[in-house]
Specification:
Two copies of one chain form a homodimer. Chain A is of the alpha+beta class. Chain A folds into two domains: 142 residues, Jelly Rolls, CATH 2.60.120.10; 72 residues, Winged helix-like DNA-binding domain superfamily/Winged helix DNA-binding domain (Arc Repressor Mutant, subunit A, Orthogonal Bundle), CATH 1.10.10.10. Helices cover 44% and strands 24% of the residues of chain A. Chain A has eight helices and eleven strands. In chain A, the strands form three sheets. The first copy, chain A, has a four-stranded antiparallel β-sheet with strand order 1-8-3-6. A four-stranded antiparallel β-sheet of chain A has the order 2-7-4-5. Chain A has a three-stranded antiparallel β-sheet with strand order 9-11-10. In chain A, a hairpin with a 5-residue loop joins β4 and β5. In chain A, α1 runs antiparallel to α3, α3 packs across α4 and α5 packs across α8. The longest helix of chain A has 27 residues. The first copy, chain A, is elongated. The model of chain A has no long low-confidence stretch (mean pLDDT 83). The interface between A and B is large, with 41 and 41 residues. Chain A binds a DNA duplex through α7.
DNA sequence: ACCGCTGTGTAGCTTTTGGTACAGACTCCG
DNA sequence: CGGAGTCTGTACCAAAAGCTACACAGCGGT
């Protein structure tokens, strides 16, 4: 994978020749091996991030150390937090962690701003990325307010399970995602198991009755 | 106040003559008297909203009827939720309520899109508005996760109190803002009063010891 | 086989928050 | 001044979630 292959990706396909050259000279690809924090609050953003492969997880950390996922950035999406800081001169307010085997393209701030001015497709992708993020954040905020933990856990299982109904996450990871503790997840899981909704294993949870979980979300309590 | 006065506001000041004419023909001003919901989830957005005077409150409503404020839109700010739906064809996912004496300019979708394409200043204000919103939402999400209700209430009092330390809100409104119930707010208030942090009155709360409240936020429990 | 590490299962207690119910106080208005 | 409507104060109970502590199971390495 080289930086020139960036040009064949999503929003960069329709660029003018000049912009392509600009991108080729300026962009840098970064590979992330094992999951590791790559950005911390207050980091001054030096460019726009574009997820080529893998996934980024943006999360908050409370004073007591517990985490909570704010949102994910999937392949083909621009990492908008960077745009945020890029256009508004705000310091980045959260943590970012890359999944295993993630590739990120870093487009320096100056280059991005130039592209944004010249290229309608970049303007478009920028606004769309921001809009999508706003949407996700509003959804998340609404979920936190409106649903109890068991419903949010059920939702997590339904959303992130593979086609085969498997979810390869430890309970600790689920807890961090939901902003709670492992014990609470284990307690809820025990309940789900008792009701025949899921089976638990080491590092994996299998969904046996998706309708049951879905019903849990729909009905109160 | 006429629509032509819009042109003297913020981002519209630098427009070309053609764009001004476009705006003059297309934009509509709406006055909102008493506080009332003006948008509901699923509403299809027909344009971009721009707050001229007053304030908009964007909030979520849980199935059980309790509300929670997601964010405010202040005078001079574009109502980005509209942009969101405008550029992404997403249905609007929350409720919007206008404060008393609020004036909103409605710029039809087609007009706004045309302005966005032609005018760098509109591109700029759009991206900035979205960025700011992303920032606010992330902050809010983080606050909900990291702080307990007493801390969030203390924060509300500190942030929204006037220079004289007065906050003209009923406890019911505070509760809706924080996504909880009036009784809980009353209980926390009793505690604040006992500690000498505030004085309560009908429809108004006076901050007597801002440092005390601030200390509450800083220290755990 | 043994050890250490990581992950899960469980119990019991505490704190926080929500729900219900009602009393009293203030305000506007006729 | 009286009454309706709105706002606040409070007591009590229930539910949800967090905290601590510990047992045990799987897995990999030596």
């Amino acid at each position: 994978m080289t930086t020139s292959s960036l040009e064949s990706l999503g929003p960069f396909r329709q660029l003018s020749e000049g912009s392509r050259a600009l991108l080729r000279r300026g962009a840098v690809l970064a590979e992330c091996g094992p999951p590791a924090p790559i950005l911390q609050p207050g980091t001054s953003i030096s460019g726009a991030y574009f997820v080529v492969r893998g996934r980024l997880r943006v999360y908050a950390v409370a004073p007591d150390g517990t985490e909570a996922t704010l949102y994910f950035i999937n392949p083909g999406e621009t990492c908008v937090f960077a745009l945020n800081s890029l256009f508004n001169d705000l310091r980045y307010p959260a943590w970012v962690q890359a999944d295993a085997d993630t590739t990120v393209a870093l487009i320096p701030g100056g280059v991005y701003r130039e592209l944004f001015q010249k290229e309608p497709s970049i303007q478009d992708v920028t606004v769309r990325a921001l809009s999508t993020l706003v949407f996700r954040l509003m959804e998340e905020l609404e979920e936190v307010h409106a649903y109890k933990l068991d419903q949010r856990l059920a939702n997590l299982l339904l959303i992130h399970a593979s086609a085969a109904g498997e979810l390869a996450m430890t309970q600790q990871q689920m807890a961090a995602h939901l902003g709670t503790t492992r014990e609470v997840v284990a307690r809820l899981m025990r309940d789900f198991v008792a009701r025949g909704f899921v089976e638990t294993g080491r590092g994996v949870t299998r969904v046996k009755n998706a309708d049951g979980l879905a019903g849990l979300i729909a009905t109160p309590t």
